Amino acid sequence: MTKIKDLSPVSFESKIKFVSQEEFNKKVPVNKIKQSDEYVKWKVRGHAKPVINKQNVFTDGIHGCNVGAVMDSDKVIMCFHQYPVGLQKTPDKRTLEAIQEIIKKRVSSNKSDSNDSLTGLIIGGGRYDSISRAYFNSIKKVFNELGIKFSIIWGQKELCLTDVYYSKEDDTWLVSTYKHKLKKSGYSKNQIKINNIEDLKNNYSDIYIRTGDELCFDENKISIKNLSHQIAKKCLTFFN
User: Is 33 inside any structural domain?
Assistant: First the structure.
């Protein structure tokens, strides 16, 4: 059963903009930023360190991984790309608790002002991956405990991958979703078009857009007032 949360007013006013790979590459200096400390790395084994205290962040190849970001009024406090480590059906409880503690410590020690409101985003994940879902629920729980006002675009279809870039100056997330195709010369990215709400529903299972956010498909902006009505009518999935 779909459950819809009350969308109470908050101060979070970031844009979440879905663009093509071509548009993404025009606006994001991918090769340059991958050599910088604004690149959010990930590891198949172990846990990559989160990026902290940056104006811009970038990460790529998000599949079953969970990407989480927390911002205050000045910067991105932290952004992490969490690979769902392990092959067991149920993730180790101690691992999940350790990740929660790391997030709490990073956020509390790096935010600019103790009274500053925190905003964020959780994106990525594999809808049929129980381990990915467990990490997602764990991250969501600690975000709520910290009072972070966040949006969610989670639960990609199988074979979907996503690249994201955040600019504090524009307060905008650029998102590009594609299929990964292996070739002898390397691999290609076959664009998945997300041009409207129906496309979004077809490619992500858990969608929650906070009041005040702007969800954009290319140049088409949808206000949260209109979007919340469409969500209720079209039964987009909300988190508990």
Answer: yes
